[in-house]
Amino acid sequence: MAAGAILRAFSKRPPRFHTTSISRSVSTLVLAEHENGLIKAQSVSAVEAAKSLNNENSVSMLLAGSGPSLKEAAKHAASCHPSISQVLVADSDKFSYPIAELWAKLVHMIQQRDGYSHIISTSGSFGKNTLPRAAALLDVSPITDVIEISGSNQFVRPIYAGNALCTVRYTGANPCMLTIRATSFPVPHVSADSRSNEAPISQVDLSTLGEDAIGKSRYVKHTSQDAERPDLGSARVVVTGGRGLKSAENFKMIEKLAEKLGAAVGATRAAVDAGFVPNDLQVGQTGKIVAPELYIAFGVSGAIQHLAGMRDSKVIVAVNKDSDAPIFQVADYGLVGDLFEVIPELLEKLPEKK
Ligand SMILES: Cc1cc2nc3c(=O)[nH]c(=O)nc-3n(C[C@H](O)[C@H](O)[C@H](O)COP(=O)(O)OP(=O)(O)OC[C@H]3O[C@@H](n4cnc5c(N)ncnc54)[C@H](O)[C@@H]3O)c2cc1C
Known about the structure:
seven-stranded parallel beta sheet, five-stranded parallel beta sheet, single chain, 9 helices, 18 strands, binds flavin-adenine dinucleotide, alpha/beta
């Protein structure tokens, strides 16, 4: 538990506190990720979270990188959410790849200069890597995995693999640093015409970020899975396979089905540990947190660590041959059946994706 954070209570349902709101001015720095000239949807959710801190919050979005895609991303950042009041751009070859140590020093430097009351990032691998390092440099305790914000210093986060919710009040010094679960802060759709304001873009002066700032980490290479498929963290439909698939060869049925549905592929830790698929497909407490519109699970028992990563999905469909499998307790639609019969039938009946 964070030293500057006091555990107030925990229960399945967050208690309602009647607190007198502490009036202090709120200014937030959002650490943003971008790809192919666009701000990632998760980072826009971080701005949505920042909005919940205070109505008069002034939100700055920080992005780093180099080259034309950074310029494109900065333009996108300026108009991607109406609450953004400025975009800060750290443009240097050093930031061509997101190295956490360097990012942490950048955040430290900007915080020393601008003194934000809050710093927010998402709970993905970028945020989990960067924010705690920056918090250590700033000597504050971060609050991680926030799913609800009630005021500028009170937050709800899951504990015990999501089986209980804990309400935490931050009592430490500024900045209050948070990682948020993007799936808990969906961004309402804003039509392109109604986005009238473009936030100003300014360059961060990197002259004080010394040559040694990069530390001992070096970028080696980036490997990514099938770029054709939707990103697991933000896909509208996810098809997941568990140990019930029995082999990597059989798991290909899940991939074919996902292809037909235009879905992302997920897996349980048991399927990953058995070598059916790489671990970046793992959904759960120690994998990715997803909340798609439709989550279809085949041969997944529904262990709490798996549910922690998908229970917020809008519609859950489960196929399992064991009628007592715990996955059926969270499923909206359950089919007790053999996946080796159900998946081929689905593959046969579903039309090819256009
Ligand atoms: C600290 C910690 C962190 C963890 N983190 C994660 C995590 O992030 N994600 C995660 O998933 N797990 C995680 N786990 C592991 C978790 O506890 C379970 O072991 C795992 O989720 C089980 O995966 P499974 O459902 O694929 O396998 P099993 O529990 O073995 O279930 C397989 C299911 O397939 C069904 N089945 C078998 N054959 C068929 C068939 N022919 N047709 C239909 N159904 C069939 C069976 O009835 C069974 O219900 C974690 C565990 C720990 C201790």
